[in-house]
UniProtKB/TrEMBL annotation:
Record flagged with keyword Hydrolase: yes
Keyword Hydrolase set for record: yes
The protein, known as: bis(5'-nucleosyl)-tetraphosphatase (symmetrical)
Gene from which this protein is expressed: yqeK
Occurrences of domain HD/PDEase (ranges): 18-145
Protein's organism: Brevibacillus choshinensis
Pfam families from the UniProt entry: HD (PF01966)
Gene3D superfamilies: Hypothetical protein af1432
Enzyme class, broadest EC rank: hydrolase
Keywords: Hydrolase, Iron, Metal-binding, Nucleotide-binding
C-alpha cells in the first residue's frame, strides 16, 4: 500500500504511473468531472477524485494488468477481449489495494469509465462523459458531445457511446457487451419520465 494523505501526495503517485500526455488528460478529466458533478448534482469531490484515478494503470504493461484481472477472477470475455478495456477494471482493483480507496461509488466510476453498463449511477455517467469531453480531447464529433453535456448528460453519454461503437465497427473491432448494454439502456429511457429531458 502506498501512503498519501492529501491531494498533492495522491497526484504525485498518479503522476508516477503515466506519461505527460496521459497526466494532462487525467487532470482535464478531473476538472470536467467536477464541473459536470456541480451541474447535475453529483458529489464534486468524488467526481474530481474519480477523475484523478480513472486511468491510474492505463500505461502499465498489459501483462501486469492481465495478472491482476486473473487474480480477481474477472470474466473470460474481458480477459479474452480487447486489452484497451483492461485498465478500467484493473484500475478499480489497484486503486483499492494500492491507494486504499474504499468508496464503492468511486471504484465503480473507475471500473465502468470505458465501457459503461446498464443502469449507470450519476457519478459513473459524470466520469464517463468527462473522459470524452475534457479540454484536451480532440476527435471528430467531440464538440457536439461537449455542447450536449451542458444540457443533457444522458443524451451526451448515448451520443458518445454510439460514436465509440461506430468507430469500433468501422475498425472491425469487437463491441464489448457492456458498451452496447449501456447504450441501449440510455436510448430506451429516452423520452420516458425520468429519461432524457426527464
Ligand atoms: O483511457 P482513455 O483513452 O482516456 O479512454 P477510454 O477509457 O474510454 O478507452 C478508450 C479505448 O477503449 C478506445 O481505444 C476504444 C476502447 N473501447 C471502448 N469501448 C470499447 C472499446 N474497445 C472495444 N473493443 N470494445 C468496446 O466496447
Ligand atoms: Fe480510460
Ligand atoms: Fe481517460
Amino acid at each position: 500500500m502506498k501512503v498519501w494523505s492529501n491531494r498533492e501526495e495522491l497526484l504525485a503517485l498518479v503522476r508516477a504511473q503515466m506519461h505527460d500526455k496521459r497526466y494532462t488528460h487525467t487532470l482535464g478529466v478531473a476538472d470536467s468531472a467536477r464541473k459536470l458533478a456541480v451541474r447535475y448534482g453529483a458529489d464534486p469531490e468524488k467526481a474530481e477524485l474519480a477523475g484523478y484515478l480513472h486511468d491510474y494503470c492505463k500505461c502499465w504493461p498489459v501483462d501486469k494488468m492481465f495478472e491482476i484481472l486473473v487474480r480477481h477472477d474477472m470474466p473470460t470475455d474481458l480477459l479474452e477481449g480487447e486489452k484497451e478495456l483492461w485498465h478500467a477494471f484493473a484500475g478499480a482493483i489497484v486503486i483499492q489495494t494500492d491507494l486504499g480507496i474504499m468508496d464503492p461509488e468511486i471504484l465503480q466510476a473507475v471500473r465502468y469509465h470505458t465501457t459503461g453498463r446498464a443502469g449507470m449511477t450519476l457519478l459513473e455517467k459524470v466520469v464517463c462523459v468527462a473522459d470524452y469531453i475534457e479540454p484536451n480531447r480532440n476527435f471528430p464529433g467531440v464538440e457536439q458531445i461537449r455542447e450536449l453535456a451542458e444540457k443533457d448528460l444522458d443524451a451526451a453519454l448515448a451520443l458518445a457511446l454510439g460514436g465509440t461503437m461506430q468507430f469500433l465497427i468501422e475498425k472491425q473491432k469487437t463491441v464489448f457487451p457492456l458498451t452496447l448494454l449501456a447504450y441501449n439502456d440510455l436510448i430506451s429511457r429516452k423520452g420516458r419520465v425520468g429519461g432524457f429531458n426527464g
